[in-house]
């Protein structure tokens, strides 16, 4: 059933879209400004991005400590912004009760910002730190190099992120340009605001009108049309180390080109037998694929395909197969393609969060099949692409992952799979977690093989709006699948079959070298292993085969948790899990903790310093621990990110890692060493933390199941199961509400004394002998 939607234009020209979605537990707002980095003066690269940053520094009405970001974080929501070439987006998702207060802060900070020069100088250094990280990030540099293939006359080929030198804060001409950009584009006629939530359309409109009217009136300012993208419709980027990049550019397409490209990419990313990706995999050539839209504006579309190929894959034949598949797509029934796309879009809408729905609405791209105009653009898009008679391309069979009915077989659930009643089946989200303890030193290599085996299914699941992942944390492998019960059961059946018997070719394939990560991400990836005192074992060089995998599975204890399945769905799931690899493992063992401070130096790529500090807490202290983490989040960010400007990667939060809860702090900095970062953290942690009763009540309200996102309920149920501490959400709420100031002080003291152990993971030396 389609959600009721209302669209209207206010007196100031602002376009408003309202969506009533009764199934949602949260509400969201997305505000799109039709101006981006290409609309700023070429003399000042990064001006639009810089302005986006300045908005979040607070205003006279809502200073930083009560601004949008702090307010949304305090109620357990999420908030972000993005500056693209021709648009700038601001968006948040919050509990229903906080929609009005968050929307007021959003609209007020955009309509009446504080653009004082002093705060500009401080924030410019943050932008410069981002620029340094961007310039050292391999993936970012690959994309920048890719964009150099477009015409040098097109603004896509230029630098737009901004840095210390392009943002001439001291120049009066820059200040005039900044104020002019805001005055021209941050007015009603250039804004599309969308609200989405379980509230009625009338209630949403009553919330939106007073804050949307804060924006000034004014006629729309035309965005300058860009020059041609390329001289040819497609360009092959020079192949490097098994990577083939194909860049496609289109000019003068009919309206609806962005939606048409979405359909094309949906077809291209279809991993079912008979398609292009399947043809590459059948030949053993494809290791990974990534395709995305890079740019879409005024009838222009730029998109690319990045292929990671095996060493023996011939790029020319890969390209010929693509051309042959494109030719077959031209001959396919557009009606049939669009009908299936409509079913996919319907599933996406049913699975989407309030934030995803609001963002789609603000971009005028609802989850729907193509209309007549977009279908015309699709035909023009296909006609603009290279095609040849090459290969055999049978039409794909119907996608079983889109079926909602339950499989017919029934059986009882295995004893090692527990049932959680935390998420009622009527919520419509079923989640299965399966967990194996893998003692073999070959676990990392086999995990890579099995991940590659599952990749086509992961792609199909993602396309069908199912969540499927197969992860490794230390000695554990974990399979998770979430979505509608029938689709989850069918997906799990296919996943278990693939895990039991991967292809012989994949078993023989050598493990590739690991791609470099940003230092902070590398530390977070290593944290689960290091938390239990282990380093990743050296990988034996022996060849892998099926018998070795059979032995590994035979000795792997297995546990699982099913959440959101009713009795009938549990029986259908039980029939599938009878064939799960591994051996029954019973309940997981409780996490172990050792007092004292432990410093582990972990080598990372990149030249920047990084530190991750994890402070475990007993399960009984989860409520006060979450409250302490909430109270520290603002001061940590204020001190390290805003005042000291250590870097743009600064975070602090409560986290659960394999059932072990605790406070997690992380910083990546181009200038401060890990020891210096730790000193700054100590300074904040040694300050008095005052209990805020309003924040306390707001935190407790986040763990009320009817208001808590379904995926978060399922994740919390799983972490609680791993922690071996029987509890429920109401107990956690009471624990939060019963926390007093003395109890908070006592918890902070025990944390500072490392009574439950500290793990500091860093890419530098320990500061002194106090660290083990």
UniProtKB/TrEMBL annotation:
Keywords assigned: Hydrolase, Metal-binding, Metalloprotease, PQQ biosynthesis, Protease, Zinc
The Peptidase M16 N-terminal domain, residue ranges: 19-143
Pfam families: Peptidase_M16, Peptidase_M16_C, PqqF-like_C_4, PqqF_C_3
One CC-aspect GO term: cytoplasm
Cofactor: Zn(2+)
One Gene Ontology molecular-function label: zinc ion binding
Residues covered by the Coenzyme PQQ synthesis protein F C-terminal lobe domain: 430-556
Domain Coenzyme PQQ synthesis protein F-like C-terminal lobe: 627-699
PANTHER family assigned to the protein according to its UniProt record, in alphabetical order: INSULIN-DEGRADING ENZYME-RELATED (PTHR43690:SF18), NARDILYSIN (PTHR43690)
Pathway: Cofactor biosynthesis; pyrroloquinoline quinone biosynthesis
Domain Peptidase M16 C-terminal: 177-335
Any one GO biological process: proteolysis
The keyword Membrane is assigned to this record: no
Protein name, per record: Coenzyme PQQ synthesis protein F
InterPro entries (UniProt xref): Metalloenz_LuxS/M16 (IPR011249), Pept_M16_N (IPR011765), Pept_M16_Zn_BS (IPR001431), Peptidase_M16 (IPR050626), Peptidase_M16_C (IPR007863), PQQ_synth_PqqF (IPR011844), PqqF-like_C_4 (IPR054734), PqqF_C_3 (IPR054733)
Superkingdom of source: Bacteria
């Amino acid at each position: 059933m389609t959600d009721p939607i209302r669209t209207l234009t206010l007196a100031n020209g602002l376009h408003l879209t309202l969506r009533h979605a009764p199934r949602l537990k949260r509400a969201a707002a997305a505000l799109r400004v039709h101006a981006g980095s290409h609309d700023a003066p070429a003399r000042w690269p990064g001006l639009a991005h810089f302005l986006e940053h300045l908005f979040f520094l607070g205003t006279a009405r809502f200073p930083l400590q009560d601004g949008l970001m702090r307010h949304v974080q305090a109620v357990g929501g999420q908030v972000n912004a993005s500056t693209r070439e021709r648009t700038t987006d601001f968006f948040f998702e919050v509990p229903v009760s906080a929609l009005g207060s968050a929307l007021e802060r959003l609209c007020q900070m955009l309509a009446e910002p504080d653009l004082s020069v002093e705060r500009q100088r401080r924030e410019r250094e943050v932008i410069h730190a981002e620029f340094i990280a961007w310039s050292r990030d391999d993936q970012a540099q690959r994309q920048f190099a890719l964009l150099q293939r477009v015409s040098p006359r097109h603004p896509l080929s230029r630098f737009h992120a901004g840095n210390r030198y392009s943002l001439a804060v001291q120049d009066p001409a820059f200040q005039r340009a900044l104020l002019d950009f805001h005055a021209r584009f941050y007015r009603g006629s250039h804004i599309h605001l969308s609200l989405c939530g379980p509230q009625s359309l009338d209630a949403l409109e009553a919330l939106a009108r007073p804050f949307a009217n804060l924006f000034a009136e004014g006629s729309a300012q035309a965005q300058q049309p860009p020059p041609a993208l390329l001289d040819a419709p497609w360009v092959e980027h020079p192949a490097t180390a098994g990577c083939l990049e194909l860049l496609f550019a289109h000019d003068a397409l009919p309206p609806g080109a962005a939606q048409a490209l979405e359909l094309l990419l949906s077809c291209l990313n279809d991993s079912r037998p008979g398609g292009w990706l399947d043809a590459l995999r059948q030949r053993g050539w494809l290791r990974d694929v990534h395709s995305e839209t890079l740019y879409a504006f005024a009838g222009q579309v730029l998109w690319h395909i990045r292929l990671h190929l095996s060493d023996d894959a011939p790029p020319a034949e890969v390209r010929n197969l693509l051309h042959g598949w494109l030719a077959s797509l031209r001959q396919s029934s557009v009606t049939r393609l669009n009908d299936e796309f409509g079913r996919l879009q319907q599933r996406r809408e049913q699975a989407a969060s309030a934030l995803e729905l609001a963002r789609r609405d603000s971009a005028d791209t609802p989850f729907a099949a193509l209309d007549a105009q977009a279908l015309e653009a699709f035909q023009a898009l296909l006609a603009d692409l290279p095609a040849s008679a090459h290969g055999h391309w049978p039409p794909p069979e119907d996608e079983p992952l889109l079926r909602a009915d339950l499989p017919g077989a029934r059986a009882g659930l295995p004893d090692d799979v527990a049932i959680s009643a935390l998420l009622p089946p009527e919520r419509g989200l079923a989640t299965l977690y399966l967990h194996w303890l893998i003692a073999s030193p070959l676990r990392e290599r086999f995990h890579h093989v099995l991940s590659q085996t599952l990749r086509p299914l992961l792609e199909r699941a993602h396309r069908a709006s199912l969540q499927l992942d197969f992860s490794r944390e230390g000695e554990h492998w974990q399979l998770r699948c979430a979505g509608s019960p029938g689709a989850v059961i069918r997906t799990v059946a296919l996943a278990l079959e693939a895990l039991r018997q991967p292809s012989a070719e994949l078993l023989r394939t050598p493990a590739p070298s690991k791609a470099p990560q940003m230092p902070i991400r590398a530390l977070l990836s290593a944290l689960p292993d290091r938390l239990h005192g282990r380093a990743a074992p050296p990988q034996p060089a022996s060849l892998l085969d099926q018998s070795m995998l059979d032995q590994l599975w035979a000795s792997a204890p297995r546990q699982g948790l099913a959440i959101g399945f009713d009795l009938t769905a549990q029986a259908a799931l039980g029939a599938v899990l009878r064939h799960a690899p591994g051996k029954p493992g019973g309940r997981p063992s409780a996490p172990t903790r050792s007092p004292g401070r432990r410093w582990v130096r972990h080598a990372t790529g990149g030249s920047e310093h990084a530190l991750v500090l994890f402070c475990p807490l007993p399960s009984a202290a989860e409520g006060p621990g979450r409250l302490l983490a909430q109270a520290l989040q603002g001061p940590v960010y204020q001190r390290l990110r805003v005042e000291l400007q250590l870097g743009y990667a600064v975070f602090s939060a409560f986290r659960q890692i394999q059932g072990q809860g605790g406070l997690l702090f992380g910083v990546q900095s181009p200038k401060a060493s890990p020891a210096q970062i730790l000193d700054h953290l100590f300074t904040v942690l040694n300050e008095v933390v005052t209990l805020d009763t309003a924040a306390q009540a707001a935190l407790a309200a986040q763990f009320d199941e009817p208001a808590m996102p379904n995926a978060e309920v399922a994740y919390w149920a799983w972490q609680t199961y791993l922690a071996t501490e029987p509890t429920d959400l109401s107990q956690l709420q009471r624990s939060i509400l019963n926390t007093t100031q003395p109890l908070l002080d006592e918890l902070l003291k025990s944390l500072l004394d490392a009574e439950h152990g500290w793990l500091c993971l860093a890419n530098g030396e320990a500061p002194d002998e106090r660290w083990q």
